[in-house]
Amino acid sequence: MNDTCEPVGRASGHAVRGGVRDQLCRWGADALADDAELVVSELLANAVRHGRPPVRVALTMLGRPVRRRVVRIEVTDAGTAVDVARVRARWRHPSFRLGEIGRGLLLVDGLSTRWGDKPAPGGHTVWADLR
Asked: Staple partner for 8: which of 57, 74, 124, 128, CB 3.0–4.6 Å?
């Protein structure tokens, strides 16, 4: 099974979260909805804050059988890529402190089974997998 849904065009963060929750319910993966809403919120906020329009959100259900399914959340923007290794190294550095900024990807890291960044035509995509 590989189903993809794009719950955002020019929608607000609230509409995107609702679209993600609705699609997960249609796929029978509503147990992931709370975590998925938080992950998509953080990735979308980063794209708006640090990236460039246009911003696109995609939700994909990967895998078979049901117990091995993974929901992939992807947020694409026209900005520069994220250096994932550098972000993770910053978390491990003794001077790292949780302030008002910099917590979003740490939350994504804690809620997802894995996440990363990949080049996309005219920008990049930050993705996170939830199981």
From this structure: 57
Structure tokens belonging to residue 92: 């491990």
Domain range for 61 is: 2-130
DSSP string, 44-92: HHHHHHHS-S--EEEEEEE-SSGGG-EEEEEEEESSPPP-HHHHHHHHH
The whole-angstrom separation of Cα 70 and Cα 60 is 8
pLDDT digits (tens, 9 = 90+) for 53-110: 999 999 999 887 666 789 999 999 999 998 888 887 776 766 666 655 567 888 999 9
Identify residue 63 by its one-letter amino acid code: G
pLDDT at site 1: 39
**Residue 126: strand, helix, or coil:** strand
